[in-house]
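lol ok so funny story. i was supposed to be doing the assay writeup but got distracted and ended up predicting the structure for this chain instead. priorities right. anyway since i did it might as well share w the group, maybe its usefull for someone
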Amino acid sequence: MIEVSPDTLQTTKAAKQMLMRLVSLSALMVIACVPSGNSTNSTTAPESELKILMLATAVESADTALIADLFWPEATYDDFANQLTYQGIPEIIGYLTSAHAWGDDIYMNMGRVNTGPTMAVGEWVFSAVQNRPIGDQVPFVTGLEVVFNGATIIELEGGRIVRAADYVDTAPLALQLGGSINFPTDGVSELENIRR
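and the output, tada:
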C-alpha cells in the first residue's frame, strides 16, 4: 500500500499535469481493454479451441445434445470427401453420429489445433472397428479396425458454430477394410502395394 500525505501532492501546476496524465493514461487503458461493440460476433481463441475439442468429443460419444448445443440451427457442415453439405441440426447430427451406425470402439483424438478470433482448425485421428455394414459402400462386416487422419475447420458466430467442414481422404478407410482401388491404366492398388 502506498501512502501519500497531503503535503506531498501540492497543488502546483506540475503536480496537476502529472495527475491529469495518470488519469488520462488510466482511462485509455480501460477503453483499450474493454471489448468492442462487435464482441457478440467474435469469439476468444480459447473459446474456439474449446468448441472444436467439444466437437471431437461429441463425435466420439455420439452426444446429440452436445452437438445441438454447439451449432446454430441454420448451421452448415461440409463433408468434402463425399461432396455433401448438411444443413441444420438434424442433418448435422446424422452426419456426425453416422460412424456409430457401423463402428464400435470409436476414438477421435483432436491433435493440433490452430485458432483465430472466430474460427478453429483441428487435425485429428479417427479410429473404429467396423462391426456392421457401412450402407451400400461396404455391405458386409469385416471386424477390422480402421484408422485415418483428417482436419476440421469451424467458423463461429456468437459463440456457436455457424459452419464446419471436414477434410479427409477416404481411400485409407476402403483399403483398411480389404477393399482395392482400380485405376484404368495401372491396375489395382491394395493396401500392401501402397505401403512399400
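The domain at 40-194 is CATH 3.10.450.50 (Nuclear Transport Factor 2; Chain: A,). The helical segments are 13-33, 45-61, 64-70, 89-96, 99-102, 171-176, 191-194.
back to the writeup now i swear
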